[in-house]
Specification:
seven-stranded mixed beta sheet, elongated
Length: 236
């Protein structure tokens, strides 16, 4: 934590909890993060409402949960929710706020809130770390080095969540590009067929026009002009 690549770090309590909920009524994973430094917690994780970006303040009364978790449990501010800790014990938690987070289920508490809910003394078991270089390649490289330490049990990176969000956001754009390309190809095929049909009809008229004294060159120019105007009109 005192390495030159680390900008700052803070001790936290980290635990994977669960809840049977959702449309499929299956077991959902919930990440609990508790801190004894609520004042500087915002340097690592931004807690704010989606509407108006109103800051959500950690208190000792309950927890701030992610918006996705609130939607899963149909919870509102002031409600009391029930979650299951890693030992299988159900814990009741008051919802003090809902923060704008759309990936994963998270619950944030203070050390006082943790003691109130779990009835145990708060003790940190992990660190939140900010690197000086935020590039994905550097994060992955530093994570690989940290996981080799004897005291490291696991590492959770936010780069994985960012990649998931980027994939979800980019997917509609890729689909639209395919649809636009298909529409353009279809337009070319339709215009080509219509032009051929128009020319075929005009060729049938050509002998009649010649019999009436029309010149072939003028007739062909007329056909080309009509076809070009028709194509431009179709594009519009």
């Amino acid at each position: 934590m005192r390495g030159g690549a680390v900008s700052e770090s803070a001790p936290i309590y980290y635990e994977e909890m669960s809840k049977v909920a959702g449309k499929e009524n299956d077991k959902q994973s919930i990440t609990l993060i508790a801190t004894d430094d609520a004042y500087n917690f915002g340097d690592y994780i931004t807690l704010r409402s989606r509407t108006g970006h109103k800051p959500q303040v950690l208190t000792d009364r309950g927890a701030i949960i992610s918006e996705r978790m609130a939607g899963m449990m149909d919870a509102k501010v002031g409600d009391t929710i029930t979650v299951t800790d890693s030992s299988g014990t159900e814990r009741k938690v008051r919802v003090d706020g809902i923060t704008e987070m759309h990936i994963g289920h998270f619950m944030f508490m203070t050390s006082g809130g943790y003691k109130h809910v779990f009835g145990e003394k708060y003790q940190s078991n992990a660190y939140m770390v900010r690197l000086k270089n935020h590039e994905t390649s550097n994060v992955e490289s530093r994570s690989a080095k940290l996981i080799k330490l004897d005291g490291a049990k696991g590492i959770v990176q936010n780069t994985t969540s960012k990649k998931q969000v980027a994939t979800i956001v980019d997917l509609p754009d890729q689909i639209m590009e395919v649809l636009i390309l298909a529409a353009e190809l279809l337009a070319v095929v339709i215009l080509y067929n219509l032009t051929n049909l128009n020319v075929s009809e005009r060729i049938r008229e050509l002998p009649t026009i010649k019999v009436l004294g029309g010149l072939g060159v003028l007739v062909y120019r007329r056909l080309k002009t009509v076809d070009m105007l028709g194509a431009l009109k179709s594009v519009e």
